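Co-fold these.
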Amino acid sequence: VKPRRKQWWAWLRARLRPPRTLKVTRIGRTYLVVTFGVGLGALNTGNNLLYLLLGLLLSMVVVSGVLSERCIRDVSVRRVGTDAAFASEPFAFRWAISKKRGHGFALTLGEADSPLTGEGGVGYLPAGVDHVVRADLTAPARGPVLLTGVRVTTTWPLGLFAKTRVFPMEGTLLVYPRRGYACQDPGEAERGPVGDAGNPRRNDGTGDVSGLRELMQGEDARRIHWRKSAALGKLLRVEREREERRTWVLAVDAGLEGDALERRCEEVAALAHRLIEEGHEVGLSTADGRVRPAAGSAQERRVLRALAWLGHEGPREEEEAA
Amino acid sequence: MRQGSRLRLVLRDLGSGFAFASMAVSGQLPVWTLALYGVSLVCALAGWRLFARRAKLTALLLLIAAVVLGMNVLAGGLNLVVAACAFAGLISAHRLLSSPEGATDGQVHLSGLLMVAGGAALSGELVYGLFLVVFSLLSSLSLALGVVEAAVPEGEPVPTREVMRPLAKGLGFAVAGAVAFFILFPRLNWNMMGPRSSPGLGAATAGFSNTVRLGGAGTIKGNPRIVLRSTLSPDPRKENLDAYWLGRTYDVFDGQEWTNAGKPRSPMLMVTLRPGGENLIHQRVELLPAYGARTAVALETPARLGNALAHTQTGSRRIGLQRLGGGELRFADAATSYSYEAYSLPPGGGGDTLDSLPPEEQDALLALPENLDARIAQTAARVLNGEREPLAAAQKLAAWLQREHQYTLELSGDVADPLADFLFVRKAGHCEHFATALTLMLRTQGLRARLATGFFGGERVADGYIVRAGDAHAWTHVLVPGRGFVTVDATPPSHRSSQSSVVLQRMIAFYEVVEARWRSAVVDYSFRDQLDFARTLVRPPRSRSGEATPSRLPPLRAWAAAVVAGLVAYGAWRGLARFLARERPHEATRFVDAVEAQLASARLEREEGETLEDLDARLAREGHPLSAALSPITRRYLEARFGGRPLLQGEATTLLATLKRAIAEDARRSAAEARPPRARRAS
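Predicted complex below.
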């Protein structure tokens, strides 16, 4: 049960929210001031030319309202979404917009009442065409972003007023932790190098030979390709397709909050990215649960999603409307 | 630069140019501002943004221009409104030469708006309306292209063609709306102060001065500009009036030039020159800025002039007329243009007698220059051959002059005796030579005559007549006993009126027709016109067959207007009805909101996803004291919301009051339980 004041405020906001919102632009404000001045001048002096000018200025305001209304009427929008959204960096977000009748001009799309910044635009939208609008949005922080609707704005035809229509469309955009560099070492691998057989004693990778390179300091002498080394006069080691896959389980401690939690999430995300890129298996252990170690980009996505939800409540299925 | 930007900038710059032109047609802006703006516009159209890199530094130029204009205003050399308009033009010029950014575009358009507003204050010219529409068109196109450009992603083309069609439609509606607003918006100010006149472009050329000197260039005859407009009552309804419009007369000739012998009198608002009759011709005359003189003009023979208004840039005011020698009436103060009323006698003589003239003018009517060539008198006597009747003699001499002499505007310049040169050497001259020759030849024969100057002509335009600068003319007044001064014109008839190009004259006449419409329909539109417009809508139609009893029913247009008004009212009513009948929150939902608000005041927290019936069930399980009050409310809510039994009038209030009382009772009980009893504490 909400307090009465909040109820009243919600009721008032619902009452006052019109189907279209109109905002006067900067040039529009000056235009209105000039119109007001011309009107005063006409009334004061009785100069018919000023009446004529006043009529033209007011008519332009009315025509501007009618044309902009025709522009955003019969419009339908749906979210196409994004591949991946990382905090504090622009990501490509798409909407599909179409118009049943008439033409649309100068339409700007954005997410209404959300912390996402950025807009996409379409200059001309003919009738019956499904146009995909791309925008570079930016999310300020990690976590699920509740999307309530898509905002379509037009300043057509004269740029005096910005008329906005919000298409209610609920959804959630999951924003992954900010991408950065991992400053800390991932620590000891949970499991040493394993091949296809999973034998912990094997240390020479699995799969086909992918190449030879000079043996470095401290490397296992059993990896030396003796025949080639003898031919070239220096020690060469074998490289295989699956080199020394190890398994790490990265952890986010349960007691972390606020900035510390954010930093740890970013650190873990970066580490997971690096390790998975290197072909290792990565798992995640958090207070909310555990992600089993695995390799590949799908695993990286699973880790990122788990990190994104960390510290947030809510349904974790179908989270990505986008 | 993105594709389409160039077009947008050109439209923007041209729009600004037309806005400036709407002020410039008034002819009041200082020439240097015209030159500066012109240069700026040309540079901008050529794409040379000279101030793009140093916008702030070059803004100092505007400061200098403001100081110069301000000093001109303080010195009285420039009107404040004109100075403000000129400064708006210079601001626009500066912005044209600046870097084309979004803010700059807006400033150019808004300064254009200020300029057309200034143009409305400065000028009432027809071309102002044209420039206003063109400015609106170009600026709107430019603004629309800018709006679309801003929304088009980088690298994609701007849909210029697609923009044009809907925008053109919109502009058409805007102009129609402006006209409708103009016609229908009630004029709240009865004291109309429209821009009556502005000097316009080009020098004024009336040709009136205190003297008439023979040997002038005669170029005025080729000037087609309109200097006078007049409506006549009764209206002669002739296409060409071919009438003499008298300005003044001259009676003293010294061999080179004509002067007057009369003395000036004090100005009066109404001047009577001679007694009138029943058949006076009423004229409502307007002397335009191209006239450029202060002498009032009226149809020959003027009887009374008055009700004069002087029109200046600051407004119109009543003005007196000062009577000078030669029957000249001069406006007391200088102004851009004048309007007045005049009454004239019908043609055929003014009924003046010699005695009615001042003594000095009586003597001058027979005066001859001292060194007059003797051949003139001899020639006059030979031509007249004994004719002594003044009018017949004058007509005989006029016929001889027209037969023996040629009309020409090409003169030999100043000569010692221009009259003898005209009569005996060149045998060619213009109207002043013909009129002077006739006047002096009559005087040599003892017949009283004088030179008259003014205009000859009058072309019908709309409901009135116009007179051009080229219609300036001179003729002779012969004093005929019993009839007074009678006009005799020695100039060949084909050369009395304007000698300018026919094509040019037609073009100007066409412009005048359109401008007459503009003046009557726009500049002088008033509350009375609005009432007339309303009356024409409801006035019964006139019977075409000329029946005595016309139909009492309103005309078709009135029915059409009523239908349109009815449809508009119906549409408004439907819109209002839809608004009132729109889907609102369910009554029961609002009721439960109020219940929740009251429960919130009792600190009863509802769990996530818990409905009102769940809450009620939970409170009942817990034995909460409010459960008894909440249960009937919950049941009633469910019935109202889902059971098809809506809440009755006032029922919600009653239920809420019950709950409120229960909550208050519970609060009191809780407070009592929390407070230790006094008796126990005392013990």
